[in-house]
Amino acid sequence: MNLLLENILNKGALGQRLDRVEALQLAQLKTVDEVHALGSAALQNRLKRFGRQATYVLNLTVNPSNICDSKCKFCHYHAAEDDPTAYVMTLEEILKQIKELKPKEIHVTGGLNKHWPYKKSRELIAQIRKIYSALYIKAFTAVEIDRFAKDEARTAEEILLELKNSGLNSLAGGGAELFSLRMRKKYCPDKIGPKRWLEIHHLSHQLGISSNATMLYGLKESAEEIVDHLLALRAAQNKTGGFSCFIPLAYQREKGTDENGPSPLKNLRIIALARLILDNFKHIKAYWPMIGVDTAAVALSWGADDLDGTLGKERIAHSGSAVSPESLSRSMMIRTIEAGGFTAVERNGYF
Ligand code: SF4
């Protein structure tokens, strides 16, 4: 390994800020030795922050409806109104699920549609809060907030404030996809762009609503596009400090096709890269539904410190090629973390 690369990895391991040129070098590593050195630097960084602890939460994912007016090409979850796979959950069904599973955190996101308009969605949050005062409610992506604001002819700020007053704790991190305009034009031209996504998260942080950040990868994006996405998130976090964690989302290929999704090694590389570049993000999540339970366990040695949660019933990754279970029990979550060589710590929505 050359001295320059060694210096960059040492800086990353110590949690020092990497510039774009340095970040790009790490995103373009070629040899197996170099890639393992990247993982080792991310492990050192992560051990310095969290020791041998890795967290998980008892949570429930609720996707109220898969009907979506947007037709992002990478998404196998959305359905048209008349599609046989289309579904719309009722408020009662959602409340029943919460009652049965007794989660500590709930995550609510879904398609853009007329079945779950703003007022009904706000009522859902208010009802949940009324019954479960201690439940951590993470709901809606910036894309959904933008849609609510447009439908209601109101500002995103007004919508966010009203949701907060109804009981919302934090915004979900989805919808960022990849900030690259080239990729968005190809895969999700109808979706709000990076400027609006970042603006809504900024507003949300200013109102005291924390949020997560994500990045979709595995669609033949370039190393520059990955690095620039991470740097844009790092710059946004510099301004507000409101992001709780970063979640890389591995592209799920369409079921039954021989399309290539990201390999386990690519998943680990992205997590390590995020750990070293996002020096101002405390938590990096290994999202097991998308990368698989085994890779998620290994990812704890590549920079991740959190395995998300038990989920209840995950639908979005599983509408693609995900072969992970739809939910994990608490004991399975603990076993997964221990199999990765770490000590499992149950957290709440606040980490
Ligand atoms: S990614 Fe979201 S906005 Fe895009 S089609 Fe799927 S559900 Fe709709």
Shape, per Cα inertia axes = globular
Judged by helices, strands and strand pairing, the structural class is alpha/beta
Q: Alpha-carbon distance between the termini? A: 37 Å
CATH topology: TIM Barrel
Question: Which architecture per CATH?
Answer: Alpha-Beta Barrel
List low-pLDDT spans. none
**Strand neighbour order, sheet with most strands:** 5-6-7-8
Radius of gyration: 19 Å
CATH class (first level) name: Alpha Beta
Describe this structure in words.
The structure is a single chain. With 351 residues, the chain is of the alpha/beta class. The chain has one domain: TIM Barrel (Alpha-Beta Barrel), CATH 3.20.20.70. It is built from 14 helices and ten strands. The chain has helices at residues 3-13, 20-27, 32-50, 91-101, 118-131, 142-152, 156-166, 181-187, 194-206, 223-240, 264-277, 288-291, 293-299, 330-339, and strands spanning 53-57, 59-62, 105-108, 136-139, 170-171, 210-217, 243-250, 283-284, 306-309, 343-347. The chain has a four-stranded parallel sheet with strand order 5-6-7-8. Helix 1 (3-13) packs parallel to helix 3, helix 9 packs parallel to helix 10 (223-240) and helix 13 crosses helix 14 (330-339). The longest helix has 19 residues, at 32-50. The chain starts with a helix and ends with a strand. 48% of the residues are buried. Iron/sulfur cluster binds at residues 68, 70-72, 75, 77-78, 111-112, 143. Iron/sulfur cluster (SF4) binds at residues 68, 70-72, 75, 77-78, 111-112, 143.
